[in-house]
Every structure is written in C-alpha cells, then in structure tokens.
Specification:
The mean pLDDT is 77. Helices cover 79% and strands 2% of the residues. It is rod-shaped and about 115 Å long. The protein is mainly α and 252 residues long. It has 6 helices and 2 strands; from the N terminus they run ααααβααβ. A two-stranded antiparallel sheet has the order 1-2.
Length: 252
C-alpha cells in the first residue's frame, strides 16, 4: 500500500484520474441535458452526437481497463528506497566491517600463536572473509536492484501523469463545448482521438515497466544463484588439529 504523500507523482496522478472521472460524468450529464431540449424534428442533428457519445463511452471503458491494474497496484518507490538503504546500511556495511575485523592482519591468533592449530585456524580465515565479502556484494546488488525498480516506478508515474494531465484538459474542453449541440460532435471526435492516444501512451509506458521488471527478475535469479553458492555452513577450522595442547605454541 502506498503511503499518502510519500510519492507525490503517484498522488498527483490519482488526483488527475479523479478529475477525469468527474469531468467525463459532467460531460455526459451536459450532453444528456442539451439533447433533452432538442425537438424531434431535429433528431438528425442528435444522432451523430448519440453515436459519438456511445463511441466515447466505449473508449473510456477501454481507458479504465488499461489503467485499473495500476490504480489497484500503484507500487511504492519511497518504500523501495528505504528497504534498499537498509540492505546497504544494515547488511552491506555491517558485513564489510565484520570482514575487515576477521582478516589475517587483524587477528591476534596469527600474531601470538604458532603450531598446527594456529595454521589450521589461519587457513579458514580467507574462506570466511570471502564469504563475508560475497554477502556484502549481495547486499549491495539487492540495494541497486531495488533502487532501479523505484526509479522505474517514478519514471512510469511521471509519464502517466503527463498523459492524464493532457487528457484532463481535453475532457474539460469537451465539457465546455457541450453547451452547444452544433459544436459537440466535432469536440467528441477530438476527445475520442485524445483518449485513444492516451491509451496508446499508457500501453507504451506499461511495456517499458514490464521490460524493467523482467530485467530485475533476471537480476533476482542471479542473486538467488549467488545465495545458493554461498552454501549453508560457515567455514570452520579443522578441530582435529587443535585437540592437543602441543598444537598451540606461543610466539617466542
């Protein structure tokens, strides 16, 4: 669910949709009112308007079908960025600090002790550091993937807002034209064309988002493969080399 105010361009797009819905309703009410005053003798004048309004109604149905999916599932770029930052700060950076603290040059074991046990422990450190570095890289990769998705959603809604703003202006102009039965047919034809162009623009924008989500899906699969390659066990030293006191010797 999108938090109100967290994603201004989404909120603005929703407001434009409400404007369009209200103005279309106003347009139909005005047209019906105007046609109710036209005498039967001028029915030939009304018929093109009636056909045009039927075509407009069908086009608006097509418009809502195209956009309803995104009214219900708007996405939340702000939340994606917050989660991305957590992957970077809480996981990527934390793991990087841990990896630095267990490196060979930081361990007292490597400095103060010799013998079989010290060598066995020393041998496990590179694998542990490599595992931690891999986790850090995964955290950063997930962060980048989430940020890319957030940017894609921002781009989608920015383009959507532009389309809706243009459509809102066209509907408002048609509503003004509805006061005259003479100019109404031409206004309806123009409006149908604008709505058709808007629908085409929406589908183009949807196609771009689908392409982005497909790319991110591929990234997520690669990330899962890397997670699987990490294995389920933390690299451990050979404890058989540490079982006897002679396996540990202090540096002289």
């Amino acid at each position: 669910m999108t938090t109100a105010g967290a994603n201004p361009v989404i909120d603005q797009s929703m407001e434009k949709l409400r404007e369009i819905e209200d103005k279309i309703r106003e347009l139909f009410d005005k047209v019906n009112d105007v046609m109710s005053w036209v005498p039967d003798i001028l029915s030939d004048l009304i018929e093109p308007v009636r056909r045009g309004m039927n075509a407009l109604n069908a086009k608006m149905t097509e418009f809502w079908d195209a956009i309803n999916r995104f009214i219900k599932y708007k996405g939340d770029p702000a939340k994606l960025r917050r989660v991305a930052a957590e992957w970077s700060d809480r996981i990527g950076n934390s793991v990087e600090d841990i990896a630095g603290s267990v490196s060979l040059d930081k361990l007292k074991t490597n400095i103060e002790w010799t013998g079989k046990a010290a060598e066995a422990y020393k041998a496990t450190v590179p694998a542990q550091v490599a595992g931690l570095n891999s986790l850090k890289e995964l955290g950063l990769q997930i962060r980048n993937s989430l940020v890319s998705l957030a940017n894609g959603l921002d781009s989608f809604w920015t383009q959507m807002y532009g389309t809706l703003a243009g459509l809102s202006i066209a509907v408002a102009a048609a509503a003004v034209s509805a006061i005259s039965i003479v100019g109404l047919p031409a206004a309806i034809v123009i409006l149908i064309g604008v709505i058709g162009a808007g629908i085409a623009s929406i589908f183009t924008t949807i196609s771009a988002v689908d392409s982005l989500t497909n790319s991110i899906g591929v990234e997520q699969t690669a990330i899962q493969d890397k997670v699987n390659s990490l294995g389920a066990a933390w690299p451990k030293a050979n404890t058989e080399s540490m079982s006897h006191s002679s396996d540990w010797k202090r540096q002289s």
